[in-house]
Design brief:
Elements lengths: L1 H12 L7 E14 L23 E13 L4 E9 L7 E10 L7 E10 L7 E3 L3 E2 L7 H9 L2 E12 L2 E11 L6 H5 L15 E2 L13 E2 L10 E10 L3 E9 L7 E2 L2 E2 L2 E13 L2 E17 L2 E18 L2 E16 L7 E15 L2 E14 L10 E14 L1
Antiparallel strand pairs: 1-2, 1-22, 2-3, 3-4, 4-5, 5-8, 6-7, 8-9, 9-12, 10-11, 12-13, 13-16, 14-15, 16-17, 17-18, 18-19, 19-20, 20-21, 21-22
Length: 398
């Protein structure tokens, strides 16, 4: 698996000498953070946010670079990497893929993409490094997608272009993501703009170690059952800004299969999204409903149903951009033994950004999460928690 990633990254980043066109862009940011009193899930706790009580107020946020090589007019290679030394490797790949899209002069256009990439389901995260324009922290849905999901395989796309807009059908076959689902089941929803790198493990909550000595990690981008997953995505983009998308995703993992102490989680969901432009007002909404299942032995099974939705309103004031978002989320777990993994919650996000230059962004974000999860009782904490995080971000684009 790592050899495939390395090959794709080499093509994308080491090929400009032989390419007709090479582009490199990215960003780096620093942050002032007022974290909540709870501890972050990144440290094995049950907090919902990137930062927690043990974190300093001054943070070096992210350093992300993306290289693109236009090898021919039809063939392009892309790799996106993040530099960070707090969790996992200091340098990690987020995406690495090659896309072939023949030049088309009629209303039909098709393309094929091979490698490792994010699924095409986010209306929020459309900036370099799969980041959101409107807020620092994406919704619960897209935080989870960035953490647990990566398409490692091949995607085909067919577009029907009309004057009124473009109808797109995309489908993919993929592997190397069989453990996806363990985080949403064992820890629930979170809010975070730090997405999992292809080589980085994720720490499971200490409360769900089940007899093992913490820390316990999941290697999410692993093949266990040797059978492919798939998705189909249908979207409509009208000539003006807006549109909708609907996706069916199924990793088709065998929930009875295990390898190296990891279980294949059969994860499947429906996802729908909607966008509408009303003058300077942008409206975004997305909903997800799915389930993930394991059956590692004849004596134990577990299914976690998960669902979430958000609505975001963003307003354009030329150099200033304001956004407000509300999220609701829930999980329900049924298992062979009594479970304490059910969760109910909601969140509110307010964000104000100033972009005085194309290369400079200042953003203030207030994020408050209110949820109840019985799993916290295992660690002696109240099941109900309200977590509030304030961030001031300075980001430089290059």
């Amino acid at each position: 698996m790592k050899a495939r990633f390395a090959l794709a990254a080499w093509v994308a980043l080491a090929g400009p000498a032989a390419a007709a066109d090479f582009q490199f862009e990215g960003y780096g940011d620093v942050r002032l953070v007022a974290p909540p009193s709870t501890e972050s899930y990144l440290d094995g706790e049950l907090g919902k946010l990137r930062y927690g009580s043990g974190d300093d107020n001054f943070q070096l946020g992210d350093l992300v670079g993306q290289g693109r090589v236009l090898i021919t007019p039809e063939l392009m290679a892309t790799a996106t990497a993040r530099a960070e030394d707090d969790y996992g490797p200091a340098l990690n790949l987020l995406e690495a893929y090659i896309r072939y899209r023949p030049v088309s002069t009629n209303e039909w256009r098709w393309s094929v993409k091979v490698g490792a990439f994010f699924p095409p389901m986010s209306l929020e995260n459309e900036q370099v490094g799969w980041t959101s324009f409107w807020t620092i922290t994406p919704s619960a849905i897209n935080s989870w997608v960035g953490e647990e999901l990566r398409i490692i395989g091949a995607e085909g796309t067919l577009e029907w272009r009309r004057e009124s807009g473009t109808l797109t059908l995309a489908g993919a076959v993929f592997g190397d993501n069989d453990p996806a689902g363990v985080m949403i089941a064992d820890r629930g929803w979170t809010f975070d703009d730090r997405y999992t790198g292809l080589f980085g493990p994720q720490r499971l909550p200490d409360a769900s170690a089940f007899g093992a000595t913490p820390p316990v990690y999941a290697h999410l981008f692993t093949e266990i059952d040797h059978r492919p997953g798939w998705y189909l995505d249908l979207s409509w983009e009208p000539a003006d800004i807006g549109g909708f998308e609907v996706m069916r995703y199924d990793n088709d993992a065998d929930p009875r299969d295990t390898q190296g102490g990891q279980i294949a989680w059969h994860t499947r969901f429906w996802d729908v999204g909607f966008e509408k432009q009303l003058g300077k007002l942008t409206l975004l909404s997305q909903g997800m409903s799915g389930a993930t299942t394991i059956e590692p032995s004849p004596f134990f099974h577990q299914t976690t149903d998960f669902r979430s939705a958000y609505a975001l309103a963003g307003y354009d004031m030329d150099e200033w951009w304001a956004a407000a978002r509300v999220d609701v989320f829930q999980t329900r777990t049924t298992a062979s033994f009594p479970s304490d993994l059910d969760e109910d919650g909601h969140a509110f996000t307010l964000s104000l950004s100033w972009l005085p230059k194309k290369w400079l962004r200042f953003t203030a974000e207030l994020l408050s999460v209110d949820d109840t999860r019985q799993e916290r009782l295992v660690e002696g904490d109240p099941a109900h928690a309200v977590e509030t995080q304030l961030q001031f971000l300075t980001r430089v684009y290059f």
